[in-house]
């Protein structure tokens, strides 16, 4: 594939085709493949990059095609797909960290990641420190000789704070640590962490990349030898592999990713702009608005500011009930990156009890952004004027109880 083609072209014309070959990638559902008795052995350590397909927990043709395209999209040497975003995250952390190692984790990040690190990883003897990575000097202070990995999420869920990846990767590497970045909210269309120094990029393929709300998946992109070792431990032994059919659905979604992200971002900007002017809205956080505290970093680091908007209103819980009742188009539901717009209220106290459990000074910072709670709006592919009208009628106090 010609690397000087624009990403839109590369995602449609991923491979050269010979006469008679299909234009779309084939779906290969077989779990086992005819083997050569002189060829590979039965252990995962016998599998190399050149090994033929053998058993579906190692690799399959359809998933491999998806991995090659995702690696190309991120500018990485290789990619490894998993059954879900969490399988990719837990696989990477279990593979890289051992008892006594120190992990620095974004203080605000996907709840599953925070809970996994604080629960299972600590139980296995890994030291875990939450750090506000939107302030690079905080990272400098938290790094230790035993720090093996810095794990960032940018924009982070649900506050949409950003991490300056060039600054953070330089600090991590200086201290001998690796940097992994969950860039699910940004997608490869908005952010290229490997070009800014990250060692690994992770995505939940369930979100924008799958993009249609009908498939779970995860991916890690990085260097060839690091991913070969990861394939053995985190895929072959932990076993949370992506199946061929979801991989095929995600391949189908990839060809429209740039256009979908352009639409998500343009509509999110319009909706966020409307929310900013609404009298019942206290604060709006969207990296594509000048009012975002890190708008300059967003402009410098991101080429698409994605479809996630976070906002605060007066009386959060009462407003959550009102919006869930009155919104007609926007669905009150978790998750993000779907054609449908989705809204969910995240009370600070609940999150603090269940997911984040931040020390007082980080909690105070969380509150400075989120107050008692925030609405997380995943702006879908509907027309912006319809979404704005829906929000306008649902926010209005006229028949609020
Ligand atoms: C959804 C999400 C995950 C987890 O992905 P699943 O596919 O649901 O397992 C991880 N990180 C971020 C930022 C997410 O939004």
TrEMBL record:
Cofactor(s) annotated in UniProt: pyridoxal 5'-phosphate
CDD domains per UniProt: CGS_like
PROSITE patterns: CYS_MET_METAB_PP
Organism: Stigmatella aurantiaca (strain DW4/3-1)
SUPFAM superfamilies: PLP-dependent transferases (SSF53383)
UniProt enzyme class: lyase
Superkingdom, taxonomy of origin: Bacteria
Record keywords: Lyase, Pyridoxal phosphate
Assigned protein family: Belongs to the trans-sulfuration enzymes family.
An example Gene Ontology biological process: transsulfuration
Gene3D superfamilies in alphabetical order: Aspartate Aminotransferase, domain 1, Type I PLP-dependent aspartate aminotransferase-like (Major domain)
GO MF annotations in UniProt: cystathionine gamma-lyase activity; pyridoxal phosphate binding
PTM-bearing positions, type N6-(pyridoxal phosphate)lysine: 207
UniProt key word Lyase: yes
A GO term from the CC aspect: cytoplasm
Enzyme Commission number, as recorded: 4.4.1.8
Name by which UniProt lists this protein: Cystathionine beta-lyase
